[in-house]
């Protein structure tokens, strides 16, 4: 039987492809639970099958390894953040009063909402230091957020920095934001969620004059 025929078979009105997607979602949800409750060291096919209530053969049909499950769960979190941040920015017209501030607040709030909606996601992000695949995903998330910030700088600022400068500055801010969020979740930083959110917003807004600041820095370097 062909793959397309197999995917098209239905059971109780649900196609094989839909059942596979459902099981995949169950494994990803189980991964979040296991990491949050027991830590990444406890991650195994047996643990994921026990938590999801699914047979090991379903795991092997969908994933090649436990690392692939964790990476997929992290990709899903990053995708949700990217989607909600973009939607939040789009809700604030460029001509709105204090649009830069409003867009920044909306974007940061959207990112926080995605993470806070499921505390298990924080556990996944804080585990990145010990799992190479998750560390790579965290870097990709930083790159994504930096790209969004750099694009907003080009669109919204009266004196935008050069694209390469905007991306460097945005990446610095994004790295700090993600690090602050994960450090707080891990208990290394004592601050309320509101204080962290406000600090990130202020840090982003504080870089609005970076084009002029860079000109001054480079001018002094030339003079010396």
Condensed summary:
With 224 residues, the chain is an all-alpha fold.
Lay out the secondary structure:
Elements lengths: L2 H6 L1 E2 L2 E2 H23 L6 H8 L3 H7 L3 H25 L8 H18 L3 H7 L5 H25 L6 H23 L7 H13 L4 H14 L1
Antiparallel strand pairs: 1-2
What would you note in describing this structure?
75% of the residues lie in helices and 2% in strands. With 224 residues, it is mainly α. It has 2 domains: 3-62, Orthogonal Bundle (Arc Repressor Mutant, subunit A); 66-223, Orthogonal Bundle (Tetracycline Repressor, domain 2), CATH 1.10.357. It contains 11 helices and 2 strands; from the N terminus they run αββαααααααααα. The longest helix has 25 residues, at 66-90. A two-stranded antiparallel ribbon has the order 1-2.
Major β-sheet profile? 2 strands, antiparallel
Percent of residues in β-strands: under 5%
Alpha-beta classification: mainly alpha
Strand order of the largest sheet: 1-2
At the first level of CATH, the class of the largest domain is Mainly Alpha
